[in-house]
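Worked example 3 (structure in, sequence out).
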């Protein structure tokens, strides 16, 4: 009998040791994916925090736990709540999500295609991933706290009921982050340091801005003028989709013939001249980055018919590499507008 008690004790101690090592020791060596759901989530244990990989619960109003196995939840993983992808059935109609104070990162595609989602609240989120809230048809309210710093590509695109967003302390916004959304009210953008192309494309807010040029902290987002010969103002530091043409239902930008870029500009983003026709662009040697996709078989999509630049400039190299006609000059006169 005594031997049996000893064996049972040893067995229990071994099991407890394995569990403790798995939870508190092994994650310091490598991430540990728990093979069964806890509290309605599939999770991965890191050294001192938890990643939520997938929600498998059935709540309409979700309150995410702050801790699992004593460790704080820090990351909502890629596709965690994605409605219709990654095995989450479409009938799970989540309407609201409360994110705990411990969460700092919302992963790529995390809440994508959640047609019934109306509200998401958090306090300490720092980064929102690519396509994180993409095409959430009913999304009306998003409050992520004042620590939000990074909003990645298309994070809030195609949300027609999202009409307001506060950018306090946001430093970086990716390409098309709010494109095709219903934004009419945008506040506190003074902290933005890096902004992508077409961030607010096709939004009511963008088209409501006054003046010929919509410039956000040095980034030219849209040309709203009526002149076909365009002289970009000196306050512009980057051109980020400003002349990209969409469907004909959008009045701006118009077809332009010539664009004169000042020597304050250092970069030109992808799609900046997309669907323009045989446009002539005057590009100074201050421009050291051109991310325009021209096509797989030559200059199909750039919208540029000719580049005028100076010898040995980055623009000359770009023209040569992409089969765009170019002209080398010592300088050019900027027309009065």
């Amino acid at each position: 009998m005594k031997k049996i008690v000893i064996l049972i004790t040893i067995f229990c101690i071994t099991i407890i040791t394995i569990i403790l090592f798995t939870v508190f020791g092994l994650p310091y060596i490598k991430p540990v994916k728990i093979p069964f759901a806890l509290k309605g989530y599939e999770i991965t244990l890191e050294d001192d925090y938890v990643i939520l990989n997938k929600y498998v619960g059935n709540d309409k109003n979700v309150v995410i736990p702050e801790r699992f196995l004593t460790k704080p939840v820090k990351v909502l993983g890629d596709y965690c709540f994605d409605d219709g992808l990654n095995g989450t059935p479409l009938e799970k109609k989540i309407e609201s999500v409360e994110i705990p104070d411990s969460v700092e990162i919302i992963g790529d595609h995390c809440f994508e295609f959640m047609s019934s989602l109306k509200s998401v609240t958090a306090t300490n989120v720092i980064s929102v991933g690519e396509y994180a809230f993409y095409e959430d048809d009913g999304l009306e309210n998003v409050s992520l706290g004042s620590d939000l710093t990074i909003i990645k590509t298309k994070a809030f695109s195609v949300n027609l009921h999202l009409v307001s967003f506060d950018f306090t302390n946001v430093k970086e916004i990716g390409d098309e982050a709010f494109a095709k959304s219903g934004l009419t009210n945008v506040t506190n953008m003074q902290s933005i340091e890096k902004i992508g192309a077409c961030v607010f494309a096709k939004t009511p807010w963008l088209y409501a801005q006054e003046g010929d040029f919509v410039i956000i902290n040095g980034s030219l987002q849209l040309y709203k003028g009526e002149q076909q010969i365009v002289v970009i103002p000196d306050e512009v530091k980057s051109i980020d989709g400003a002349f990209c043409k969409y469907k004909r239902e959008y009045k701006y930008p118009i077809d332009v013939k010539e664009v004169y870029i000042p020597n304050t500009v250092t970069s030109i983003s992808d799609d900046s001249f997309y669907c323009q026709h045989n446009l002539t662009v005057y590009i100074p040697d201050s421009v050291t980055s051109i991310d325009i996709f021209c096509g797989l078989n030559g200059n199909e999509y750039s919208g540029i018919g000719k580049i005028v630049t100076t010898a040995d400039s980055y623009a000359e190299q770009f023209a040569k590499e992409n089969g765009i006609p170019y002209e080398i000059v010592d300088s050019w006169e900027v027309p009065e507008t």
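Notes: The radius of gyration is 26 Å. Residues 192 and 217 are 7 Å apart (CA to CA).
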